[in-house]
Amino acid sequence: MVKIGVLLATRGLVMRAMRESRPADASLVPTFAERAEAAGLDSIWVGDSLLSKPRLEPVATLAAIAGRTSRIRIGTAVLLPALRHPLTLAHSLATVDILSQGRLVIGAGVGGGFTPAQQQDWTATGVSPQARAGRLTEMVQVMKRLWSEDHVSFFGKHFTLEDVTLDPKPIQPGGPPILLATHLATGSEAQYRRAARHASGIMGISDSPNDYVQVLRRVGELATAEGRDWEDMERAFYMTVNINSNAEAGAAEADDFLMAYYGVRHWTGRWGPWGDTQAVAEAMAAYAEAGARELVVRFASWDQASQLDQFVGKVVPAFRELVGSGA
Questions:
Q1: pLDDT tens, position by position, 157-201
Q2: Which of 45, 51, 98, 154 has a beta carbon 3.0–4.6 Å from 77's, enabling a disulfide?
Q3: Strands 104-108 and 3-7, how do they pair?
Q4: pTM of this structure
Q5: Residue 26: which CATH number?
Q6: CA 210 to chain centre
Q7: At a CB cut-off of 8 Å and minimum separation 6, what does 305 contact?
Q8: pLDDT tens digits for 55-102?
Q9: Structural domain that includes position 104
Q10: Domain count for the chain
Q11: Given this model, what pLDDT does residue 11 score?
């Protein structure tokens, strides 16, 4: 059965507070998580950024969610590990895995370095934007070892550890699964190989269903060549939608929300749909047919509660009907 998760708009609530010149109201965080769990969804996710897209810090947010839920899987979509040091991040993530009784999953990516604001995220933390891909690779290697070994020594280009033992270790053997963001639209052979060699699976975004098929095929080939069992690796896809019976109104709200979110209109033709229940369910079914085993849905809307109600009440049942009980 295809798993279904939703993104908690930790960026959206900060944007609304900035628009209204008031402190951010984080009461949505536990409420949204509890409602998602009560509705039977499989996962809830939070995003990550620093200065370019202000939001709640993701690891702390997940710790709060862990304390208010008991079943639903909690994760990042996506975390930017290269902004951090692997030892301290591994410690924080291990703690959240313990607090959640082993429900943590990490979607992680290289992150953007294309606009001046995105570049500042890296330079303000002392990281060269050009180094972020190499740092991510070493971060994954180091954290996986810290979560499963004692007396870890690592001598890389970006990080050095000598005889380090991290305790407590996560509940999940070997640590939380790490899904690396992997795309055809902006990907590279190095990106595919990093996922195939080091990750527990991949998370797609922005690709069409046909593009996603190609990504899965290539990562699967590389994983098999690495001696890994591709069938055991996770395959997620991250979607952005607006549910509205009036497609024109949905498109207008999505555009307003995403322009406030990014400041640059880069999603045209890549995200959506902005439309009714059936349109969203059909788009989800297309990615399931392409090979996604988990769909992570973000609502491009200022009214996250209403979107969640429509999603669990109408879209999810319509999706299940389209793909059948086995998906």
A1: 999 999 999 999 999 999 999 999 999 877 789 999 999 999 999
A2: 45
A3: unpaired
A4: 0.96
A5: 3.20.20.30
A6: 21
A7: 28, 32, 35
A8: 999 999 999 999 999 999 999 999 999 999 999 999 999 999 999 999
A9: 3-323
A10: 1
A11: 94
